[in-house]
Write a structure and sequence with these properties.
The chain has about 240 residues and is α/β, with parallel strands linked by helices. The protein has 10 helices and 9 strands. The chain has 2 domains: about 140 residues, TPP-binding domain (Rossmann fold); about 70 residues, SIR2/SIRT2 'Small Domain', CATH 3.30.1600.10. The protein binds ligand BV8 and zinc ion. The site of zinc ion has 8 residues, from loops.
């Protein structure tokens, strides 16, 4: 069966998850040594956990933020930035579930952080979003109104960011690529089915099989950092 081909007329939507950052040394959520093995989701990634123990939640996020200083994009991030450069303006969007900044560091531009960003915090009261805060404070406070800052990430049970824009892109999409995501977390897990429903060609690059197999035309099993640089040439140079 021939593989995916990407043409300049295509409108490409890419969805990435924790697996795209794994080779940069950032823990995924569900792999053996994953984040959720060491922390209880309920305690650190839900509004209830935040209200119960905000100091624990800030320790969880500040630890991950500190890790960011010592990791770099891997060839998977770089290949995705290269595909974007090779597509006409406005015909490529990268939706990431990741809260790290490795796609930006690799040069991705048209990027949507649907689950927020480690490098941002938001005031619970005036909703101001900041990129600088006192990371030594147990619970940092807003410089504008003095109330508590929370991590600017989407917890379970909260609405992901920019869903309207994402669904608009999915309606126009002719090629959908999923990279490094287990396909368990909704609504991201439903994006490939949405793309398929409008006739898009779909592909996944992932270490393990994912539940959405029925919507995937081309499945490339393996490490994204090893596979994507070669696949880029196969997909675009046809
Ligand atoms: C919502 C930010 C509705 C924080 C994250 C009951 C109550 C409430 C909600 C629900 C419920 N039941 C279901 C839900 C919906 C829920 C959900 O889906 N839960 C799941 C667990 C069942 N979803 C939500 O709550 C979402 N919101 O539904 O809102 C709503 C509607 C109206 C109004 C208000 C609300 C919000 C979900 C977002 C949660 N926040 N992150 C943080 O990061 O700390 S989710 C977090 O987990 C990540 O962001 C990511 O999205 C997810 C992990 O998924 P992956 O990225 O796929 O990572 P994972 O480890 O799972 O997989 C990695 C994959 O990579 C693996 O397949 C592996 O094989 C592969 N891999 C590994 N290495 C490599 C590789 N592949 C290639 N190369 C490699 N080298
Ligand atoms: Zn404020």
């Amino acid at each position: 069966m021939s593989g995916l081909r990407i043409h300049p007329k295509d409108m490409m939507v890419v969805l990435t998850g924790a697996g795209v950052s794994a080779e940069s040394g950032i823990s995924t959520f569900r792999d053996a040594d994953g984040l959720w093995e060491r922390y209880d989701i309920e305690e650190v990634a839900t509004p209830a956990g935040w209200h119960k123990n905000p100091k624990l939640v800030w320790r969880f996020y500040n630890d991950r933020l500190k890790d960011l200083a010592s990791v770099n994009p891997n060839p998977a991030h770089e290949a995705l930035a290269e595909i974007e450069r090779r597509m006409p303006e406005g015909q490529f969007v990268l939706v990431t579930q990741n809260v790290d900044d490795l796609h930006e560091k690799a040069g991705s531009r048209n990027l949507i952080h649907m689950h927020g960003e480690l490098r941002k915090a938001r005031c619970e009261s005036c909703s101001q979003v900041v990129s600088e805060w006192d990371t030594d404070a147990e619970i940092p406070s807003c410089s504008s109104c003095g109330q508590r800052l929370r991590p600017h990430v989407v917890w379970f049970g909260e609405l992901p960011f920019q869903l309207q824009r994402i669904f608009m892109c999915l309606e126009q999409c002719t090629v959908f690529l999923g990279v490094g995501t287990s396909g368990f977390v909704n609504p991201a897990a439903s994006f490939v089915a949405s793309a398929k429903s409008v006739g898009a060609r779909t592909a996944f690059v992932n270490l393990e099989h994912v539940p959405q197999t029925g919507f995937i035309d081309h499945f490339y099993q393996g490490k994204a950092g090893e596979l994507l640089p070669g696949l880029l040439r196969e997909w675009l140079d046809a």
